[in-house]
Amino acid sequence: MSSRDFDCIVIGAGIQGSFTAYHLAKNGKKALLLEQFFLPHSRGSSHGQTRIIRKAYEQDFYTHMMEECFQLWAQLESEAGVKLYRRTGLLLMGPEKGREFQLFKSTMERNRLPTVTLGPADFSQHIPNVNRNPGDGAFVDTTAGVLYADRALRAAQEVFRSLGGVIMDGEKVVDIKPGPLVSVTTASGVYRAKSLVITAGPWANTLLSHTHLHLPLQVVKINVCYWRERTPGAYSAGNRFPCFIHVEAEGAGHHIYGLPSNEYPGLMKVCYHMGSETDPDDRDRQMDRGDIDILSRYITRHFPGLVPVPAVLESCMYTVTPDHHFVLDRHPSHSNIIIGAGFSGHGFKFGPIVGKVLCELALGQVPSYDLSPFKIQRFSSHSKSAL
Ligand SMILES: Cc1cc2nc3c(=O)[nH]c(=O)nc-3n(C[C@H](O)[C@H](O)[C@H](O)COP(=O)(O)OP(=O)(O)OC[C@H]3O[C@@H](n4cnc5c(N)ncnc54)[C@H](O)[C@@H]3O)c2cc1C
């Protein structure tokens, strides 16, 4: 094998591509991870200090994947010798009789997950400084917590390298030629491999266009807002404040979620789970602040201990599918091209499992999980010609 020939090439060194490369190397494969920007960077979806990890989901198939996922995160922690997870619990709130709250609650019950239900009487004792809506139900997924995202991404890449994996950053892929050996062209030359995994985040369709496939993906810019605590530490992880998700919050349209103050002392991250459409190469031109207005009103009403004007504003992108479920599948016309895309703003926690199943698909193995919810075929009514 020449230095340009690999068992597998992975395009995109976000969390999904980095974990795919990690699993390929663990399987003894010669793998190349290509990244358009110099690492680390903040122009995709995997940067930033924190993400929520939880088992609470509306669908069993996500909850089932999280069981092994927690173990794989712990394994990476011990391999890299760094702390990646802090248990805080996750408070789930929403109209008690509403569809979404009930879906979350019944998944927790069906799977017998450790849950603490908070009635109106004990809510303020456990969750101080939060105004609960009169009709809202609330429970805590006690195993949930915070993942240290930047650290986790670095750790997966370091373990991959330590196993002999090759990372080429600052190498944008400009062409893909499918075939029994797939050719991938960057400004530095052409690489070949028996299989290719595309985990390009918001750029998925740009890359897939070289293979004549277009997926119904919407790229949106997320305003990542941090809000100042009136009393520093009031909503901190140190004071045992949990992560939270508020579903169907006063007709906001999408979830509002938050993480306890931790990474920036005195500031709590509270975000709106949707944004405005953007071009990933031009995202700073998207200046829509409608989500920030929704959050300011929400914070005034529910978090009286926060100043309702964002103190820090960062940005990130979601790549959203019509049903908000991932794409984990083979290319419909080229079985040795594997696609991991459309993580719809909730994919980080699944990185170790996504990487595992994309690696299995790339090696022609039977995937460890039923991937039917993630098949490209489900979009056939959206874009028949493209499929
Ligand atoms: C504000 C925010 C909050 C979130 N909160 C949570 C949370 O609490 N919990 C959770 O589980 N998830 C969360 N997510 C979602 C999660 O972060 C994403 O699902 C995940 O990071 C997606 O990773 P990715 O590897 O698919 O994409 P990316 O991280 O975007 O990686 C794709 C990579 O491909 C590279 N690339 C693209 N084109 C090319 C090319 N032509 N050549 C070479 N390289 C290329 C890009 O530069 C990029 O590095 C959040 C996301 C955001 C934005």
TrEMBL record:
Assigned EC number: 1.5.3.1, 1.5.3.7
Q: GO:BP terms for this protein?
A: L-lysine catabolic process to acetyl-CoA via L-pipecolate
Q: Which InterPro entries match?
A: FAD-dep_OxRdtase, FAD/NAD-bd_sf, MTOX
Gene3D superfamilies linked: D-Amino Acid Oxidase, subunit A, domain 2 (3.30.9.10), FAD/NAD(P)-binding domain (3.50.50.60)
CC cofactor: FAD
Cite a GO CC annotation.
peroxisome
The FAD dependent oxidoreductase domain, residue ranges? 7-361
Q: Extract the GO molecular function terms from the UniProt entry.
A: flavin adenine dinucleotide binding; L-pipecolate oxidase activity; sarcosine oxidase activity
Catalysed reaction equations from the record: L-pipecolate + O2 = L-1-piperideine-6-carboxylate + H2O2 + H(+); sarcosine + O2 + H2O = formaldehyde + glycine + H2O2
Q: Name one Pfam family in it.
A: DAO
Q: Which UniProt keywords apply?
A: FAD, Flavoprotein, Oxidoreductase
| Known role | Metabolizes sarcosine, L-pipecolic acid and L-proline.
Q: Which family does it belong to?
A: Belongs to the MSOX/MTOX family.
Q: What is this protein called?
A: Peroxisomal sarcosine oxidase
Question: What species does this protein belong to?
Answer: Aldrovandia affinis
